[in-house]
From TrEMBL:
InterPro entries: Lysozyme-like_dom_sf (IPR023346), PLL-like_beta-prop (IPR058502), SLT_3 (IPR043992). The keyword Electron transport does not apply. CDD domains: PLL_lectin. Residues 165-482 form the PLL-like beta propeller domain. Residues 44-130 form the Transglycosylase SLT domain. This is Uncharacterized protein. It comes from Streptomyces showdoensis. It holds the Pfam family DUF8189. The keyword Transmembrane does not apply. Residues 1-37 form the signal peptide. Transmembrane segments: none annotated.
Length: 488
């Protein structure tokens, strides 16, 4: 699953024969010879057989065109870290997905079936670097034409846009796949960005804005990132003027508060949540990429709570809010719809992080004086009880998914950083492992090639550490030649 688009290759006769049989069965060729058929028709047919539908099938075909030019024999090893092979139509990597053997990976239908499973039915394309970097968009017209020739079966799910972690340091990918990171110092917000996809970092630039702020970041429907910053007195936001482009200045967004989080509705409209001394409020775009409604109360929520937003498997936003005494939860009653009442979710704590399994079920972690606990969806409407995991006391938390879909959790307090991960996809967790020294804040994001990059802050500045393999990591280092802002 690499970003480079490979040239089309000649298909072996056995593959062409199978291709022709598939397309004739679907009524696509209509007398055309296999040599005259578009390779995208093969991806459309096996993608449909695997379960992709409608716009989800269009996205699947576009990703396959970007990955392999829809060549079932395609293989790539260039720039793979660690050394590994991307295989077949959807370039299933043999390191991150050893459960897909070569016989399956180079079989068109088996490869499509594996892509359907890994992408959670077409709702999560984050494991594919071409999708993360937006390369698939170049192939959407060709993909749509192939699906139209197939009969454009539908409707189907659009890929879900999962919220990024909020906190005093946040990171998200621009539409071209480069990570951008923002850190809140006493003198305002500072910004650095990758100079190339999966690459080295720029120097830090100071953006002014609220001092000592809590931050949140999300992509608009057109791909432009939007950043939100709040402290006790001020709430401001700024946004990219074009996808992956320059940024606006700071603009007022409301009064001050304790914390913020933001997520994208199913129709692309951003929805922002802010906590303060009288509970949680929200504000939302009235149209994708458009203006904003007025602030509205959510009907309660913990006072001065820490907030995170996640998406249910069906695309509904869910909000989790924690303070020292109480943990509560609120969710949309329908995609793009209204909201439930706040529900009790557990006792109080220090911090929380929320993520999703490969099958879409939400996982919630919360820290407190005796370590880290977690709770997870057992169905779309039910939850497990809280379970202890160990881990550092009163830690700041973050989480991200490895390229194979396993949830990984990172915790830091003033003395130590530690790391916990699932032993398999949708599976239980192992034991906490040392991850470095102490600090003040932590966040994780995924590079365009899927590798996790973790940012940790301290009073000395901002560090980062990144995945070099399935279970191997770089050492902590500055992003570039400068330390960045001190974060208390």
């Amino acid at each position: 699953m690499r970003t480079a688009r490979r040239s089309p290759r000649a298909l072996p006769l056995t593959v062409l024969s199978a291709f022709a049989s598939l397309l004739l069965a679907a009524g696509v060729l209509g007398g055309a010879s296999p040599a005259q058929a578009a390779t995208s028709d093969l991806c459309a047919q096996v993608g449909y057989n695997a379960g992709f539908r409608g716009d989800g099938l269009v996205t699947a075909v576009a990703v396959a065109l970007a990955e392999s030019s829809c060549d079932p024999s395609a293989t790539n090893t260039t720039n793979n870290t660690p050394p590994s092979r991307d295989r077949g139509l959807w370039q299933i990597n043999d390191y991150w997905h050893p459960e897909v053997d070569d016989a399956c990976a180079y079989d068109a239908q088996c490869n499509a079936n594996a892509a359907y499973t890994i992408s959670n039915g077409g709702t999560n394309w984050q494991p594919w670097s071409t999708y993360n970097a937006g390369v698939h968009r170049r192939h959407l017209d060709e993909a749509r034409a192939a699906v139209d020739r197939l009969g454009r079966p539908g409707p189907g799910p659009a890929p879900l846009v999962y919220p990024a972690e909020s906190g005093r340091v946040v990171s998200a990918r621009s539409s071209d796949g480069r990570l951008e990171v923002f850190a809140a110092g006493a003198d305002g917000v500072h910004h650095a960005w990758q100079l190339a996809v999966n690459g080295a970092w720029s120097d830090w630039e100071r953006l002014a804005g609220p001092g000592g702020a809590e931050l949140a970041i999300a992509p608009n429907a057109d791909g432009r990132l939007e950043l939100f910053a709040i402290n006790g007195n001020t709430f401001q936001h700024r946004y990219q003027l074009a996808p992956s482009g320059a940024w606006s200045g700071w603009e007022a967004f409301g009064g001050g508060g304790r914390d913020i989080a933001v997520g994208a509705n199913g129709d692309g409209r951003l929805e922002v949540f802010a906590s303060g001394p009288v509970g949680v409020f929200h504000k939302y775009q009235t149209a994708p990429d458009g203006g904003w409604a007025e602030w509205e109360p959510t009907g309660g929520g913990p006072a001065d709570g820490r907030l995170e937003v996640e998406k249910s498997p069906d695309g509904r936003l869910e909000v989790f809010a924690l303070n020292g005494e109480v943990f509560q939860h609120q969710y949309q009653t329908a995609v793009n719809g209204g909201w439930s009442a706040w529900e009790e979710f557990g006792g109080g704590g220090r911090d929380l992080t929320v993520d999703h399994n490969q099958d879409g079920r939400i996982e919630v972690f919360a820290s407190g004086p005796v370590g880290v606990f977690h709770k997870y969806m057992t169905s779309p409407t039910s939850w497990s009880g809280w379970e202890p995991t160990g881990g550092p006391a009163d830690a700041q938390l973050t989480s991200e998914r490895s390229p194979d879909g396993r949830v990984e959790v990172f915790a830091i307090n003033g003395s130590v950083a530690r790391h916990l991960w699932q032993t398999g996809v949708n599976a239980p967790y192992g034991q906490w492992a040392d991850y470095g020294g102490g600090g003040t804040e932590i966040t994780a994001a995924a590079n365009a090639d899927g590798r996790i990059e973790v940012f940790g802050t301290s009073r000395a500045g901002v560090y980062h550490k990144w995945q070099t393999g399935f279970s191997s990591w770089s050492e902590w280092a500055w992003l570039n030649s400068t330390a960045g802002p001190a974060v208390d």
